[in-house]
Write a structure and sequence with these properties.
Blueprint (H helix, E strand, L loop, with lengths): L1 E14 L2 E6 L2 E7 L8 H11 L3 E2 L5 E3 L7 E6 L21 H19 L2 E4 L6 E16 L2
Parallel strand pairs: 3-6, 6-7
Antiparallel strand pairs: 1-2, 1-3, 1-8, 4-5
Length: about 150
């Protein structure tokens, strides 16, 4: 599993020109499931994403989590994070999990974040051609993986 986590002031996700999800201050999380990833890793990812202290406090120190600020999460399935660019110029995506299982784990991650950590999660549409507009803050971008 891999996630790219970005601190945002706001973000909007559209499919076919229609707004599907919209958040205010919080995180945009691009999430990928790779072949052979264990479902138990979802607990780790949900806890880390919810509790990662990457928002600045009143002393301008990264000391607050998305939970602490009452922020929201836009969770976006992103199989291209599994892209292998070591050979040639066209990425290989053979390391990405099959769509059915990847979607199941993507949905479970959102559910865990909401139910175990109390953070509001908006989602994209799995497999859709999504257009995302976001205003990054910082910019602060963190890469989280299980390796």
């Amino acid at each position: 599993m891999k996630a790219v986590i970005q601190v945002v002031n706001h973000a909007t996700l559209k499919v076919d020109g229609n707004v599907v999800s919209k958040i205010g201050q919080g995180l945009v999380v691009y999430f990928c499931v790779e072949k052979d990833d264990k479902e138990e890793l979802l607990d780790y990812f949900a806890k880390k994403i919810s509790n990662m202290r990457i928002f600045v406090d009143s002393n301008d120190k990264m000391n607050l989590s998305v939970k602490d600020i009452g922020g929201e999460i836009l969770l976006v399935s992103q199989f291209t994070l599994a892209g292998d660019c070591e050979h040639g110029n066209r990425p290989s995506f053979i390391g990405a999990e099959l769509p059915e299982r990847a979607n199941t784990l993507y949905e479970k991650l959102g559910f865990k974040i909401e139910n175990d950590f109390g953070v509001s999660v908006s989602r994209g549409i799995f497999g859709a051609d999504m257009k995302i507009t976001q205003e990054n803050s910082g910019p602060i971008t963190i890469i989280l993986n299980n390796k």
